[in-house]
Amino acid sequence: MEELIKRIEPERIYSTREVAELLGVNSGTVRYWIRKGWLKGFRVGGRFKVEGKALQDFVKRGMSG
User: Fold this and answer.
1) How many helices, marked H, and strands, marked E, lie in the chain?
2) Through-space distance between the first and last CA atoms of the chain, rounded to whole angstroms
3) What is the per-residue pLDDT across 15-53, written as a single tens digit (0 to 9) for each?
4) What are phi and psi of 43, to 5 degrees?
5) From CA 38, how far away is CA 7, in angstroms rounded?
6) Could you give all domains of the chain from N- to C-terminal order, each with its CATH number?
7) Closest by Cα among 62, 21, 18, 13 to 41
8) Per-residue pLDDT, 1
9) Helix (H) or strand (E) segment spanning residue 4
10) What does each C-alpha distance from 25 to 11, 38, 45, 64 come to in angstroms?
């Protein structure tokens, strides 16, 4: 898990596809996590985006709400 956290750039904005690739899930799962409030995300032009810092925090929590 530490290696994954180090690969995430805290200042970067990630697409759901990029998050999915990093975590080994599909992008629908990432959107579900955002809608449930488990992963902090925001919309840009109708698409979800995730800040790197929020992604690091999510991974540190064990990828759960």
Assistant:
1) 4, 3
2) 17
3) 999 999 999 999 999 999 999 999 999 999 999 999 999
4) -100, 140
5) 20
6) 2-60 (1.10.1660.10)
7) 13
8) 79
9) helix 2-7
10) 22, 15, 23, 13
- Which residue in 3, 2, 1, 29 sits closest to 16, CA to CA? 29
65 pLDDT more than 70: no
Average pLDDT for 3-16: 96
- Counting beta carbons within 10 angstroms of the beta carbon of residue 32, is it exposed (0 to 12), middle (13 to 18) or buried (19 or more)? middle
3-state helix, strand, coil in the chain (%, to 5): 50, 15, 30
Please identify which residue in the block is written with the tokens 């750039």. Answer: 9
Max CA separation in the chain (angstroms): 32
